[in-house]
Amino acid sequence: MEKKPYVGVTGFIHRKDEELESEHVVRWWEHLPKKGRVLSLGILVASQTLARRQNWPRRYPHIEDVEKILIDHPDVINIIHYFSAIPDSLYSQLGYMAGKFDDRIQGFQINHPWPAILELERFREVYDGKYRLIMTLGRDELGQLNFDPSKLCLKLYDYLDLIDDVLIDFSQSEGKVIRPEETMLFLHALDKMQDKISLGVAGGFCPETIHLLKLIRDKFPNISSDAESQLRTTEDYLHLDRTCSYLSLHQEIIK
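^ thats the sequence. predicted structure below, dont judge the formating
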């Protein structure tokens, strides 16, 4: 599977009797210059979702609605952003979703700290690279390493054959705006691993903060990015106009 850099938008749901958010955004994306990028549609799922318990209903869809959100398009990847309250059985949870959605999804972003290596090894062995695996690194994960970039590199060596991307995200889905200098300390340390893993960033991206992403992209032209909390309405639904504006601006800053 070719793993192009992506521009991600996360938090799609299915609203009855409303225009499908993912279709609206993909229609806009179709008319933008791709510049070697794919659009990542991020669908938030948690272990509570799999148990049919509602979790943050304006960002996490019902498990039965996930398939309605997925878009089959050559310039789009559908990524399940997954948080598990029972990480010791991560393999079986990812396997359940792989069986349920099959080729309609292209990968998983794992949103809990330092997933167990054995669980990822089992998943890789069974699915043999079929799905793109993205691991998030936020304040909790990096705090365990005293925010030391060299310790992060050592820790990641154990994951190099198990994941495809690392996403540096200090915002923790709270929309906190990225601090490029702080983030780039870790990106520079990880840059030597880019033959094994791809890099991404998140942190309050929206039309008003696109200049901060440009500062990073000027140094790391192949970096991926993801946006969520600053693209919401006051009612916490995905703001379609802001999202489309953000995507247009995002593609403008790519050289």
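The beta strands are 6-10, 38-46, 76-83, 107-110, 132-137, 165-169, 198-202, 224-227.
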